[in-house]
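Researcher: Let's run the pair from yesterday's discussion. Sequence first, then tokens, for each.
Model: Starting with the first of the pair.
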Amino acid sequence: MKMSREIFCGATALALFLLLSTVTPAGAQEADDPTTILLILDSSGSMWGQIDGVAKIVIAKQTLSTIITDLPDNAEVGLILYGHRTKGDCNDVELVTPIGRIDKSGLTQRIQAINPKGKTPITLSIQLAGEALRTIESAATVVLVSDGEETCDADPCAAARQLKESGVDFVMHVIGFDVGDEERAQLECIASAGGGKYFTAASSEDFEFAAKTATMAVAAAPASGEGKVWIQDPKVFSPGTKFTVRFEAATTFHDNAWLGVVPSDVPHGSEQVNDRHNLGYRYIRGRTSGEDVLTAPSQPGSYDIRLHDSDSNGREVASATFTVEAATGKVWLDKNEFTAAENMVVHYSALALGNYAWAGIIPSDIPHGSEAENDKHDLTYKYVTSDPDGTLTLTAPATEGSYDVRLHDTNNNGSEIASVTFNVVKASGKVWLDATDYLAGQQLDVHFSSSSALGDSAWVAIVPSDVPHGSASENDRHDVDYRYIPGQTSGTVSLNAPFTAERWDVRLNDSTATDGNELAHTAFTVSIAKGTLTLDQTSFSPGDVVAVSFEVPEGLGSRAWAGLLPSSVEHGSAATNDLHDL
């Protein structure tokens, strides 16, 4: 999927620690029964992924160091890590802090030492949590934080269900950190099986509300009051279109009251039912009136905006219906045949495209219709503007064949709404030099021409003649000098002859892509120049000026040089001479 969700800084760490920080602060009167929390923290390699330039694990460590001291002194806390010791090990799960009276300094030091490395064995983590929970007598809250799905060929949802059915007294909440639809489905199943809630977030504010809801859901009193929600006419949108929702809410609503997009065929009334089916939501955060922006679902149909008084077993108090209709449009090209890596101007015309509509190049043998399927196979793409008519530039694939430009209404399980087919053929070209023999370091004027305009990454290079011909990527691994020649059909560029006396080629390539092509080549030979040096005398006093006379062949490279060296330095290598010249 081409990601377009808003990214929030430190959400995984923030959500986890908000869950902790809602417990009675240190210094306050503590309950007779201490709070018991078992944390399962993702320490897999993906935690090195960055949010706004900062690694997620770094954000987590920084946040925890400021939160951990505010936990109650009598809190019972345990910590399970996974993926923190070795790469590729599905058994890398460890109860690093057994459940017990919190040691704030020790827990902080343990978390600061986390070095994410491995896989995501969620199932084994849940099983280890079960073993830890069986050693205590009190009820416990398990908080699982993950930025991905199980990667060890196991079923974490079944593991959570089995643990719940075994009679262990716990509730398991799951926090998903910037996860896709498939990952979310698995994490939601884990939370449901563990008797808890699944929390996701498109912003740090949403995450904070979700975390507070998880810790206060049992104690919160029912909300009361009425409200309303409405959408301005026309109430018809294309997939992926952002639209404005207006609402009024009672002062008695909870702070976590929310608006959500729910399919119209879902029965009305239950906030819990709506929560399981919502396709996008916003918390209203204590406002009694206002507006929010939501995104139309990717599939055509009838949907509701539903207003709820709480995110904790609340009520649906109002709704407004709208319709999503498939976008229509067309896409076309100025011609139906392009050379490999050639720039293509794509024209499109469409009505009411969504905010993340896109056009991409797809092999023609991929079945039409599904945006998600096209997304798996696109070779290049660009988002299109919301203007009804426009153009964009794409680069033709480097491999010959039949391809489509396909236009899509959104980037999240949307639909293909138009396509046009074109063929890619290998360009023909030639390259030549003014001579066939050059001195080491001498400048070569390289002339080239092509049957059509070359792509933006076309290039010429000097490559050893014994490197097999044909592949631009193979040439790229062996070139010793090169120049880009973007968009040109003919021209001249300068390269420098290598310093090794052997047979070389100048090769013309259509692209730097891994499947790019060599279009033409010409060979030349490099020889080492011979010259003479003479001195007017052979004996000098310190500080005397040494006058040197020399004769060299015409065409010697512009970086040729003469230097004064100790006679004990071995002859032959300019690099060695350079180390010792005085």
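Model: Moving on to the second of the pair.
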Amino acid sequence: MVSRGLRLGPTRREFVTLARSPASNVRALCRRFNVSPHVGYKILNRYRAEGEEGLRDRSHRPRHTPLRSSDATEKAVLAVRTDHPSWGGRKIAAQLRAFGFTAVPAPSTITAILTRHGRLRSFFQQDALAWMSALLHKKMDYRDLPDAIIGHSDLPILLNRLEKGRLLDRKRSIAILASRRGLKSGLICKFLSLSRQTYRRYLQVFEQNGTAALFAPRINPHRKFDNETVKRAVFNVLHQPPGNFGINRTTWTMADLSRVLSEIGQPAGEDVIRKIIKAAGYRWRKARVVLTSNDPEFSQKLDRIRSILSELKTDEAFFSIDEYGPFAVKAQPGRVLLGPGEQRLVPQWQKSRGCLILTAAIELSSNQVSHFYSTKKNTAEMIRMMDVLTHQYRDRYKIYLSWDAASWHISKELFKRIDEHNAVVGSNGPIVETAPLPARAQFLNVIESIFSGLARAIIHNSDYKSVDDAKAAIDRYFEERNVHFSEHPRRAGGKIWRKEREPAEFSESNNCKDPRFG
């Protein structure tokens, strides 16, 4: 028997041609064609003895079959079947014994004899099976296609999959073509080894969405790591210190996360949790990526922010505030679309053209961003932002300022200035209240999501010639964003502006702080 690697005549001919060259190494060629040396030399010897005839395919039928039933026995079986067309192997065997036969075949052997002579199926079934077998083995004359499929726009794709597709695709094509020919579903399912449910699904998908859906890879719609409820639950737990759940650890383990999620009614295995965290862009090995707050008042601060947002009135405003930078104005690396053979290079060492610190605030109900440029990150800049917002939103009764726990965000000087403002403001402007985020919870700060979109859109892959050019691009970015949400009013969230990492909305499961974009 010829090995798999040399089953085709042209392949054998190529093997022999290479093996007969002067500098050939037959054993190396055998490894290349994935055959044993014994088979390789056998092919060579056949060619030397018989020429081209020795390269032809040979029958695999055994030379001797001593246990096969005799011709007389087979004729007797077929004669009984002719007299009784509905009888099977057992009844025919019993009838042969009644006739006095001494060597009566077993019922299974009788069934094999009937099958070999085509006596178990009707002509229609035999014709249908032969037609489907020709399709499956790519021996079909396409002129025999059913009239119901001729002219269909997806017919070329079905035929292409029959010719070049994997076995599963060929079965799907045959199922469609056989159904259009009018063959019975049971016969089709039995030949293709399909369940009736799978067969009906193939037909339904093809009728509704054509071959694009029929040959599309199936994705389980119930994958837990795609479930938004489970994702929110994972990050809600992950953002809190393990001590909040009675665990004597400072960092989370997968086993603890899985157990806590089960306890709160959102069971998820460790593999599911890993996929969710990885898809969010976080890795356990990177110490600079902080997913967990160690603030003992995490839950209380979170509940207060949620309470304010749920009861926010029309004459109130809630601001998420932070700084972006400092970042140097120079050629920045980033992903860029390049032609073949092109490569964008960014020097490792560059002379900076200046640096920028951007201080910004987003009002969550109107989705409007207010910003200015700072020289330092300190309390004075926070007081300046408060003055900008109280003037810009002077028609409001109250504004809430929310920021992370940086020292200049919680300084005595800042709170003194807020108290002085509230003491004299009267009806000339809004009252100011703070709603600080938990410590080490920058990932909950909605403005971080805005910064990530800004970085991807106009900072990364940039090469501004001056600080003024960079400022002009940033100003234009925020101006276009504010105009868009002025013309299409909606709260921050739901619609992501350009390439922002997270919806610009407050949620305990947010990961607004993009570890890739500063």
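Researcher: Give me one sentence on the second I can quote.
Model: The two ends are 65 Å apart (CA to CA).
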